[in-house]
Amino acid sequence: MPADLKEGRIVVVGASLAGLRAAEALREEGFTGSLTVVGDEPHAPYDRPPLSKQVLLGQATAETTELPMRRDPDAEWRLGVRATGLDLLGKRVLLEDGESLPYDRVLIATGTRARPWPHKDEAALDGVFTLRSREDGAGLAERLAERPERVLVIGGGFTGSEIASACRELGVQVTVTERGPAPLVGALGGTLSKLAAVMQRNNGVDLRTGVTVTALNGNGSFTGAELSDGSRVDADVCVAALGAIRNVEWLADSGLAAGPRGIACDAGCRAFNMYGIVTDDVFVAGDVSRFPHPLFGYQLLSLEHWGNAVEQAEVAAHNMVNPGPLQRPHLAVPVFWSTQFGLNIKSVGVPTYSDHVVIAQGSLEARRLAMVYGYKGRVTAAVTVDMAKSLDYYRHLIETAAAFPPPPGAADRAIAADVTIPSDVPDPSVLSHGPTVALTGHLPDRRLTVV
C-alpha cells in the first residue's frame, strides 16, 4: 500500500449508485491516484426506484434514469465486463475477459439482482418478468402500455406492491399472490400490513394471501398460473417480485465473509475475512454489505435502501483514503419510503427489530398515522403513512434510545401511547418476498466448519 493513502490504485467493483457516489467522494476527499470502476451492465450508473414507478406509468423512459454525476470522478470505466474473482494476496480483481486489475484498495459495491422464478422453463415464457434492471423496466413498461387483460404479481413486498399500484393506475387488472398473511408484512409487521391489504383491495387488486404459485402455464407465451389452494389465475403478464439475491458468487474463493446475506464488514465498511478478521484494503458499500449497528444490538444489518447506499459509499470512500484515527463509522439510521395506492409510506429505523408497536398519531381508520416500534422497552423504528413530517421526531427517539412506549410529545392523544400490541414480525421464511431490511447475527460462511 502506498505510504500516502491519497495516492495509489483503487478499483471499485460495481457501477452502481454506491459505486458512483464512492468514486465521486474519493476525489472530493483528495484521492489523486488511478481509479477504475468495473460494471457488469453496459450502462453508466442509473437510478432503480423510478423503474417500478414513473417508468411503468409511462411518465419516464428507462433510458432517462441515468444518475447525475455530482462531479467527474476522473475514472476509467470498465462497463459491460463482469468481475469473476478477487485475489486478496496478489491484490488483483479478476475479470471475465481474462484480464486482472491490480489494486492497493478495492471497494465492493456489486449490489443485488432480482430473484428469478425458480423453474427455468417457466421463467423463460414470453410475458414473465422480474424488475431490477433498465431492460426489465423498459420491457415491462412496454407490455403494460399494451394494456394486458390481467397481470399476475408474485410477491407482496415493496416492489410487488408498487408494480400492482402502477397497474391499477393504468387501469389494468392485477392479481397479487403472497405466501405470508398480508402484503408488506415482512417489512412493516402485522398491524400495518393489514392497512396495506385493505388499500390494495379497495383499489381493485385481487389480493390472494397465504398461497403460493405452484406453476406458470403457457406454451411459449405465459397464459396463467396454478396456485397452492387449487385455484387458477388467467393472466397475460407475470412479474416475479420475490426479493433480491446479493451478488457475492464471484467472491466464493476469495476468503471473504461473503454469503447469501452479503459481505460482512465492520462499522468502517472494512470487509471481514471468513475468520472474522478485518481486512485493511477491502471495503464494502451498498446493498451487498452487512454491517453492525449499535442501535440494533450490534446485529449485522443488510439494507436494500437508496439512502443507505449513498451514505455508506461516502463513509467507505473517506475511510479508504484516511488513516485509522481519522476514520468514520457508518451509523446512519435506516430510512426508506414507498408510494403506492395514493399512500406515502415512510420508515425510519428497523421495524423488524421489534416486539411491540403502538399507534402514536392518527389511526388505521383514517389511513393517516405514525406507528412506533419498540424492542425490550426501547424505541427502534417508526413508520408514517401520509404523515412524513413526524418522522424526524421519531428518528431522534431512536438515536437517543428513548423508552418505549414513547412519551406523549408527538402523540396527538395521551392514551394512545399506552396501548401497545405485539409487532407481529413474521419469520422471513414464510414470505414470498425477501425482506428489504435483514438482521442477521450469524457469520455467513459455512466453510468455516470444514477448516
Automatic annotation (TrEMBL):
Protein name: FAD-dependent oxidoreductase
Any single GO CC term annotated in Swiss-Prot or TrEMBL for this entry: cytoplasm
Cofactor: FAD
Chain ranges of the FAD/NAD(P)-binding domain: 9-313
Domain Reductase C-terminal stretches: 336-413
PANTHER family listed in its UniProt record: APOPTOSIS-INDUCING FACTOR 1, RIESKE DOMAIN-CONTAINING PROTEIN-RELATED
SUPFAM superfamilies in alphabetical order: FAD/NAD(P)-binding domain, FAD/NAD-linked reductases, dimerisation (C-terminal) domain
Domain of life: Bacteria
Keywords: FAD, Flavoprotein, Oxidoreductase
One Pfam family, short name: Reductase_C
GO terms for MF: oxidoreductase activity, acting on NAD(P)H
Organism (species): Streptomyces argyrophylli
